[in-house]
Specification:
This protein has 505 residues and is α/β, with parallel strands linked by helices. The protein is 35% helix and 16% strand. The longest helix is centred in the C-terminal third of the chain and has 19 residues.
Length: 505
């Protein structure tokens, strides 16, 4: 037999596709040809596979070897095809019966000594194999615990190519996924640690209840960063679908904790202000990898010192914030990643940022205006809540009275509000108020009475807010009503939403 075929999985973005790895051995000058749109890493697999096969005690066939990856129109990237290529090639020699791995997906990178090394993206690969009807996968030992998180698939582990060959020949077993104790999650910062700032806490609670973006403006030391870091602790834990989606993104990026279960806590990403466009929205050679906005999917993206970010980097977030996804086009193809996160911006009022107030500011008015303009109007128009925090007073900072609510008590109200919104929008597929399209809120049965929206309509007519801002105020009003456990917003809710949107307190 000079032909053999095994299964593998390829990734394009976060989407996995079942790939058939064919190997054909023919007479001719010895060579290894890999076809099927391989990238540079996959082209180099011929050298890795040859060394691994020889160092595993097998003879290398001196024939013309053609390896084809189907479907041929799908780009193939990465080293996760090595194990499947080596198995198909040895099966093509006729010395390795492949019946034991028929219908089994083989995933893993090969070292020159024949060891099977871990690869990124095992979680979405195994999930894609399960969707395609594959019931058993063979993965590197280091990736086995991660792969076992996918339900409905039997996961077997392998540490060397020699072990896999022995299993196929019936001379030895494969390994079971190791049983590891889940790592203790780090403690979540508590909202009770924040002194004063009742307005900021109220805005943070509303943002958590509706999934809204929020901008926190004010002098240094006002508590902007502390508030932002406590937002994930107010959000509900991720359900099964969201946890699998978030964990898959972190697996592709190579930042999923080894041996741990699915991520259940909403992620928190806080890139440095020197971050590039590629690090924020995704990029890299070949097909792009996920950026911070995708790693914060179903969680929080915090941009501290937002005015210090490069303008191109900030403006690149406008489309992901609006669509909830990132579409990156490269010469080798198009990559799409989900990016449904909550953006939190924190910025000082000016470069000198004197904490005592405007009377001590050393910046000329032109410098202050230029600094504020780094956060462009189109970007801020996509931010639902825009809150200016006042400087802390000594009485607030030194108070020993336990008057602040804990994150647990606020999170309970947020969970109740989110459950009410989910029930209301369940027939439309929207999870929270921030996902509801504006036309839906402006049409019956969700349209609010004219008496409740009179001020809002006036501000739209005079140009004080945009049409996008009009819809975002309505979403905020619904979140405020949900927190108060009322079925519909009233005029007071719309008024509070206008104040939190425009800063006109």
């Amino acid at each position: 037999m000079s032909y053999a075929k095994v299964l593998c999985v390829g990734l394009v973005g976060v989407t996995g596709h079942l790939v058939e790895v064919e190997a054909d051995l023919a007479a001719g000058l010895p060579a290894v040809i890999i076809s099927g749109l391989p990238d540079t890493t996959l082209h180099e697999a011929r050298d890795r596979v040859r060394a691994a096969v020889v160092n595993s005690g097998q003879s290398w066939p001196n024939r013309r070897i053609t390896v084809n990856l189907l479907p041929a129109t799908l780009p193939k990237i990465g080293s996760g095809f090595d194990l499947a290529i080596a198995t198909a090639l040895l099966g093509g020699t006729g010395e390795l019966p492949l019946a034991p791995v028929d219908g089994v997906a083989l995933l893993g990178e090969l070292g020159l000594d024949g060891t099977v090394r871990p690869v990124r993206g095992i979680l979405p690969m195994v999930a894609a194999a399960a969707r395609s009807g594959v019931t058993q996968v063979v993965v590197p030992t280091t990736n086995a615990a991660e792969a076992a998180a996918v339900p409905g698939v039997r996961v077997r582990a392998v540490d060397t190519l020699h072990r896999l060959i022995a299993y196929i020949r019936g001379e030895g077993p494969l390994l079971d996924p190791p049983v590891t104790a889940p790592a203790a999650e780090p403690a979540v910062p508590d909202l009770a640690d924040v002194s004063g700032q009742a307005l900021g806490k109220r805005a943070l609670e509303i943002a958590a209840a509706g999934g809204h973006h929020i901008a926190l403006l004010g002098p240094p030391g006002a508590g902007k960063t502390m508030l932002a870091e406590r937002l994930p602790g107010l959000l509900p834990p991720l359900d099964d679908d969201a946890a699998l989606e978030v964990s898959a993104l972190h697996s592709i990026a190579g930042v999923l904790p080894p041996g741990g279960p699915l991520l259940r806590r909403p992620p928190f990403q806080a890139p440095h202000h020197s971050a590039t466009v590629a690090s924020l929205v995704g990029g890299g050679t070949g097909l792009a990898r996920p950026g911070a906005v995708s790693l914060a999917h179903h969680g929080v993206l915090f941009l501290d010192e937002a005015a210090e970010f490069a303008t191109r980097a900030l403006e690149s977030l406008r489309q992901p914030l609006e669509k909830g996804r990132v579409l990156i086009t490269r010469s080798r193809g198009v990559t799409e990643y989900p990016a449904r996160c909550q953006l939190v911006l924190a910025a000082n009022p000016c470069p000198c940022a004197k904490p005592a107030g405007d009377q001590y500011c050393e910046c000329p008015p032109t410098v202050r205006r230029r600094y504020r303009s780094r956060l462009s109007g189109p970007l801020l128009d996509r931010v639902d809540l825009q809150v200016t925090l006042p400087p802390l007073r000594a009485a607030e900072l030194t108070s020993t009275a336990a008057t602040s609510e804990t994150s647990a008590s606020v999170a309970a109200r947020v969970a109740t509000a989110r459950a009410a919104a989910a029930r209301r929008w369940s027939g439309h597929g929207w999870r929270c108020n921030a996902m509801v399209p504006g036309p839906a809120l402006r049409q019956p049965p969700w349209r609010l009475p004219a008496t409740h929206t009179a001020e809002l309509r006036h501000r739209l007519d005079v140009g004080a807010i945009s049409a996008r801002g009009y819809d975002r105020v309505l979403r905020l009003a619904w979140s405020i009503a949900d927190l108060d456990e009322r079925p519909r917003p009233d005029g007071a809710d719309v008024g509070e939403a206008i104040q939190l949107r425009t800063g006109d307190l």
